[in-house]
Write a structure and sequence with these properties.
Oligomer: single chain
Shape: globular
Distance between the termini: 12 Å
Radius of gyration: 26 Å
Helix content: 55-70%
Mean pLDDT: 88
Low-confidence stretches: 701-732
Amino acid sequence: MARAYPLTDLVKLVRAYGVLAGTSDMERVIAGTLSRQWIAKEVEHLVTLSSLPRPLFKTLRGRDLLAAELFPDQDIDPETIDPDALDIDSVGRRKLINTNRLPKLEPTIHASVLTANILLGVRLYGCHGKGMQSMSHDMIVAAMLQQAYGKAHRYSSFSTHDKELVDDTYLLTWFGDNVARLVVELSDYLKVFEKAVLYDEPVPAAPSAQIASAVAAIHAGHLRLTARAAGDQVISFLDSEQRQELEALGVNCSDDFPELPFLETDYKLTLAAFSLKGVDHYALCEPLRNTLLMSVRDVLDDHGKRERLSGRRGKAVHEVHINLPVMEYFVVAEAPNSIEAVHVASLEMMRSLEKGRRKSLSTMVSHAFHIATIAECVLGRALEPLIVTLAMLHDVVEDGSSRVTGYGHSLRKIQFRFGGPIAAMVSELTDSSVQSAGVSKANLTFKLPHLLLPQAQYNVGRFTDMTVEATEAEQPYTLAGIVIKLLDTVVSLKEGIRDPELMNGHWRHSGARIYWAERDRGSIVQPLLERLVIEIKESVADPKYARRPHHVNTVRLKAGAAIIETVMTYQDMYAVQNLAILAYEYRLDTVERDTLIGLFFDRNVDNEQFAERVLNGILDDQKLRQSVEEGRLPCIGYSTLFSKDALLDAARGEQTFIAYRHSALRRQEMRREMLVDTSEKINSMAMRMEQVLRVFDQTVELGADVGDANDQDKLAVPSLEELYSDLEVVGN
């Protein structure tokens, strides 16, 4: 059911982000919806340069990679590199490459991001620069949702077999009458328009100038994706299994230019869309016709020019993006807390992280959209455009760096595009080269006498000249930074819960997962949670709290309480799954596993009793060694009770696991302190834990791997609606 707070333009935009993440994240340009086998191959990992396919080095992106890795100290022109003249096999064995630097077919979500920003440009600068106010935010959202209309929403249901369909009823419930009507109206016309163009029939006029411009923006966005695929020549260096999958989808992978038919079709549709009466010329046709359409036409006339479409300065990439009116004219620093800033941030993220894939199978764009969606559900009335903007940008610098994606993003570029205050807030969330900086910031935040609002810390109301550095250890988190850091953790936990069997190496086993949850991310999250609890308790205990100079208003306090509950809920679910993985590694039966989980969460069991019954009892290292010998886990160091590099005869290291249990018990205390440990919520949490275990048994413990099924949702978690149904969500 819809929330009790106003259905604002921002709320509808964020919900559209969530729908796109839930329906279209596994879709790729040209290929459409791909199998989990394919998606799993795209997951971020390290490979040697010498292991990369040789056809890649014949492309512009491949030569760029060779120049960066083999000639790092030379300002060499990649065009002058002859891959055949280099001993890549020898030199490349020592060079590790992040696979997020390699070209990939783009997720079709990117087309929706482009569509939204094109139409925002029409709204702000159309009609000869005066702006087309009739291009409403509802129409922009309706255009974005075309890609999701009629599809199953992956994150909408607890059950993998009962996903909600994004149909008319869904749209009416979550987006209101006007958006639902516009989605249907636009969808109906798109079908008629595309049929007429593809069959060379007369094209009927669009119902309105707004519909006409939306159709042009939708097809231009998709053409940009196809053009980049053609320029990157991705299909030429796919492996045999990927080629077979594309062949089954109708792509002739053996052709010298397999992307050509799709490029021709998308060009034809876009050209026809631009000819529709009512399409805005100044903010839509002109900037795209002189960049995208012109460069694609050149390629269609001369196939040898397709490399011009790609690369850091590619005509179908860089020139299109920087010439969009929202990039050229809109000054985010003058309106940092606006819905327009959110759109520009989504475009900046998309263009910087288009190759990025997370270990959870998610694209970088979907990850950010998921954070924004949870922010809307949890924050309610406290949701601001600034928070959503930070959700879009929080990974851009860290994951858009040269070492990760080759893009070479920086905080300076963020500062130039978005202003000093937003750049400073992004710096809060960007990992520095000092691994302990985030922990230091979190501990400093915990010790503060009050929370810092970003408006006070960074003077958000006007442009300021600021020096920004990644995660400065001596600077505490602002409230906005705390919110994004915690919600980012929720999404990471949720991703880990969904697909544990698809993780690589250490991440498939208890050691890395528990270390990350306790020592890595946990050492940042726990102080932030504790600080929020302190603030909420003080707001209740101190009758003069609202008069404090640095007080937090009631709406934000309620949002903070909802965030705390949400984070702890997912931490507990993740812990249950980790315990199930540990039980699997130690070959425990169902009764023994239930005993392990029960004692782990039982606050009446002290350390001595836990050690006797669990550490020295059911967790028998002889069984673990047997699992190693049988290949259930690669080596003993993959399990949480041993160090990462431990050999079979090594001594245990139980400290992290014991600390992990203490953190779980502390969460129970925090619930009691906040008076949210009601029997209803305890029972609800128990049901969720049972579901996590039940689905785990159906997937991981039965030895399922990526090749066992193509079901996109083998491991499900509660929907947002189910998760928050028993939480005190703001606005309810």
